[in-house]
Design a protein that fits this description.
This protein is mainly beta. Helix content is 9%, strand content 41%. An eight-stranded antiparallel barrel has the order 3-5-6-7-8-9-10-11. The protein starts with a helix and ends in a 12-residue tail after the last strand.
Length: 169
């Protein structure tokens, strides 16, 4: 009996370390993996707009002074309550292209001074968080930064029929 309890305890501990995936293969980890709490400050909507998309145009390496344009699209979609989805595809003719299950999960938080976004990623050698801080908005461009990179996102208008989804995390 003791052996069964110990075995059950080990199995429960091991399974609690894992995370779930969506039908599209994207990770849905526990919010405790993130170092920020989801946003609760409504002042953030003066900076970001949940009815728009933000498409990465260029990532500039600050340390080596090099800019790069990725072949893979990176599109941010902000949702209410501190959730962000990072999509790799978006088709303006297909509403289903913005289904949240197709996005990498992320959170944002605004403390009245700083807007912080954290995106969880995974690759064969590990995984972790990418932290981006708000820098500024110029005309139709949102700029985010971290210690190594400056990211410029083009702000894209989103048709109302695309605003039907709520995040699954």
């Amino acid at each position: 009996m003791v052996k069964k309890i110990i075995t059950l305890g080990i199995v429960l501990c091991l399974t609690s370390c894992f995370y779930s995936r969506t039908v599209y293969g994207n990770i849905r980890s526990k919010p405790s993996r993130f170092t920020i709490k989801p946003n609760s400050n409504n002042e953030v909507y003066k900076i970001i707009d949940t009815t728009k998309l933000y498409e990465l145009v260029v990532a500039h390496n600050i340390i080596y002074n090099q800019s790069s344009i990725s072949n893979v699209k990176q599109i941010l979609k902000f949702y209410a309550n501190g959730r962000v989805g990072e999509f790799e595809t978006y088709f303006d003719s297909d509403v289903k292209s913005l289904e949240p299950k197709k996005a990498k999960m992320a959170y944002y938080n605004y403390d009245g001074k700083n807007l912080v976004i954290q995106i969880y990623f995974e690759h064969p050698q590990g995984g972790g968080l990418i932290k981006k801080n708000f820098k500024e908005i110029k005309r139709d461009t949102l700029e985010l930064m971290n210690d190594d990179y400056s990211y410029k996102y083009k702000i894209i208008d989103l048709p109302k029929e695309f605003l039907i989804y709520k995040p699954d995390w």
